[in-house]
């Protein structure tokens, strides 16, 4: 799979260190897991924003229906709110004209529909549904209210003129942090913790796996989901996140990437507890720059985060509604439009930024194609 991904784009000068350990792993404190020459392909085009003309949103009333956890999850929902904040700062959207409601874990679909109808009845237009769990209720409500403009994050199944899909190339950003994990691992053994075993989160895992194997084909990867499909508490259970991450660390992983929402706090605490000066362990955050949002006590183990720019999508959507130009929005928020990426806060990936950006440019330029499934 790695060979197909990198044909014509990557010349490997090395691979996972051969110590005789299962899966190509090595002992902590050894030399780097992989040494490879990053792909060439020139610089990528600068990203563009659909809302760059700074439209006037002062007359809009924006409703936001958050996913489980709501504002304060330090991840997905907070990223959506960051887009609202930027629209307030840049477009003149009044804070008093923003109303926020939040989903409960495992609530019935009619509760989500009621939430959307409440926002519309209170005069909010547009309304932004944050999360794929809104897909079925939104399809019903949007059909009932053709004069209300809706957007939904992470779903493109609704074919109605008043619904805009805000979807992302999560696999592309995850590929980049997979490269980072392989380059930073001393054991040639990394891990992935997913919140809920659904196709969306499987995209994160798929990209992460491809990125790691691109530079270390023999790397060993632990992968586990906190809850099965249908049980969305996996996005809001730090204790279970801690248990799953601890299991992967005990199995030998020394870098763990989570795509688990608020449960990621438990992943960070597990990594912190297992990390020592002689045997450091590292974590990779998701959605937001979690070095900035996580508990300061665990910040030093967070080397990077996969940035899923829900903030950019929400900001651009509000701008497009205000300027009556929804057609200017990208079909998918990918690396080309700064829809996904990776963070550098904390400086722990500064030494590999050139390699990460070379892979980023190769993806943007089409030299590397990242698959959304394993």
UniProtKB/TrEMBL annotation:
Limits of the ABC transporter substrate-binding protein PnrA-like domain: 66-373
Keywords: Cell membrane, Lipoprotein, Membrane, Signal
GO CC annotations, alphabetized: plasma membrane
Cellular localization per UniProt: Cell membrane
Keyword Membrane among UniProt keywords: yes
Descriptive protein name: Nucleoside-binding protein
Organism, as annotated: Pseudonocardia thermophila
């Amino acid at each position: 799979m790695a060979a197909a991904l990198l044909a014509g784009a990557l010349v490997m000068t090395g691979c996972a260190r051969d110590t005789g350990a299962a899966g190509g792993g090595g002992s902590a404190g050894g030399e780097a897991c992989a040494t490879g020459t990053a792909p060439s392909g020139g610089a990528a085009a600068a990203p563009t924003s659909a809302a760059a003309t700074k439209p006037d949103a002062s007359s809009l009333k924006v409703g936001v229906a958050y996913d489980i956890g709501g504002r304060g999850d330090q991840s997905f929902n907070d990223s959506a709110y960051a887009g609202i904040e930027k629209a307030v700062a840049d477009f003149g959207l009044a804070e008093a004209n923003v109303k926020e409601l939040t989903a409960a874990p495992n609530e019935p679909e009619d509760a989500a529909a009621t939430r959307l109808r409440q926002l519309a009845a209170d005069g909010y237009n547009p309304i932004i549904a944050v999360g794929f769990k809104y897909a079925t209720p939104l399809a019903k409500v949007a059909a009932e209210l053709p004069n209300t403009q809706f957007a939904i994050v992470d779903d493109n199944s609704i074919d109605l003129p008043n619904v805009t899909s805000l979807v992302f190339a999560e696999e592309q950003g995850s590929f980049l942090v997979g490269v980072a994990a392989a380059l930073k691992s001393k054991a040639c053994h990394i891990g992935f913790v997913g919140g809920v075993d659904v196709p969306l989160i499987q995209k994160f895992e798929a990209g992460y796996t491809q990125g790691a194997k691109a530079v270390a084909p023999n790397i060993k990867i632990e992968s586990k989901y906190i809850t099965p499909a249908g049980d969305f508490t996996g996005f809001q259970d730090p204790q279970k996140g801690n248990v799953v991450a601890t299991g992967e660390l005990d199995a030998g992983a020394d870098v763990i990437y989570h795509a688990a929402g608020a449960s990621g706090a438990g992943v960070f605490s597990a990594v912190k507890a297992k990390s020592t000066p002689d045997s450091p362990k590292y974590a990779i955050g998701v959605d937001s720059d979690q070095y900035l949002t996580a508990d300061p006590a665990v910040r030093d183990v967070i080397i990077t985060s996969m940035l899923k720019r829900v903030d950019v999508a929400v900001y651009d959507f509000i701008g497009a509604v205000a300027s009556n130009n929804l057609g200017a929005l990208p079909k998918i928020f990918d690396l080309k439009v700064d829809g996904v990426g990776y963070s550098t806060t904390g400086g722990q990936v500064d030494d590999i930024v050139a390699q990460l950006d070379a892979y980023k440019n190769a993806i943007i330029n089409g030299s590397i194609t990242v698959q959304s499934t394993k």
